[in-house]
Amino acid sequence: MTRMWRQCSLLGLMAAALATSSRTEAGIIPWPWNRNSEPVMTERRCEREAYYAERACDPIGAKQVYKKGKQWPPFPRPQGPANLPSHLYHAEHYWPHPYNCQDREYVHALSNAHVNNGWVTMTTLYDYHFEPDTHQLNTSGRTHIRWILENAPSKNRYIFVQATFDDATTAVRQSATKVEAVSLCGIQPVPPVLVRVTSPLGRPAQEIDAIRRKELETIEKPRITSPIGSNNFGAAEASGN
């Protein structure tokens, strides 16, 4: 009994010594399962990780297979090996990811395209912004350039000039636009002045006003016609009086 007690005491002293010697500045050495926080990537594990990463982008759902002369199912479906159980669990747990992200990206792309096209239309100088004889900017054109410089966002701050059938005329209009932009900007950067092949989406205000005035001039005067039988009704009233 005394011998067993001595052995236990010796083992306890050895364990205490080891625990004391294993102390570091940060504290006691962690447990064995925490000691190697970054396990060594063996060749087998690297191959397995590469396999899972390669299959990570497989579409989720039933695959179309060829069996007994038929395609199962008969409508178009992804082909290839069946999905891995872990990937199926991931898809069901986080559904509808990643399809909702793709839908949002598609909607944002369409919206941004519409916004950019709208700004291109609003920052374009058309034929009615120039004098027909000298091809210099008229009052409407100068006002529109000032509006572009004051209201267009920095990423959409471009000035487009409608291209004409004559390159020399287009060059004159582009040069006049640059001169006006420089005079308005001063020391600030001048936005690029580009040529754009397009046509006006609407009509000039003068043309609309002229059409409206002609419409008002050609309106017939209102006339009130008597209903059928009104003469007899009036004669009967006169005889009664």
Description:
- The protein is mainly alpha-helical.
- It has nine helices and seven strands.
- The strands form three sheets. It has a three-stranded parallel beta sheet with strand order 5-6-7.
- The longest helix has 24 residues.
- It is elongated.
- About 2% of the residues have low confidence.
Task: Name the descriptors.
single chain, 241 residues, mainly alpha, 3-stranded parallel β-sheet, two-stranded antiparallel ribbon, 9 helices, 52% helix, 8% strand, elongated
Helix-strand layout with pairing:
Blueprint: H1 2-21, E1 23-24, E2 27-28, H2 32-35, H3 43-55, E3 65-67, E4 70-72, H4 85-93, H5 99-122, E5 124-125, H6 139-151, E6 159-162, H7 167-185, E7 193-196, H8 205-217, H9 230-240
Helix pairs in contact: 6-7
Structure described in brief:
This protein is mostly helical.
Which secondary-structure class do the elements indicate?
A: mainly alpha
Number of E-state strands: 7
Strand content: 5-15%
Count of helix runs: 9
Mean pLDDT: 83
Helix content: 40-55%
Overall radius of gyration: 42 Å
- Pattern of helices and strands: HEEHHEEHHEHEHEHH
Overall geometry? elongated
What's the N-to-C terminus distance? 151 Å
Report low-confidence residues grouped into runs of 5 or more. Answer: 21-26
Strand order of the largest sheet: 5-6-7
> How is the main sheet built?
3 strands, parallel
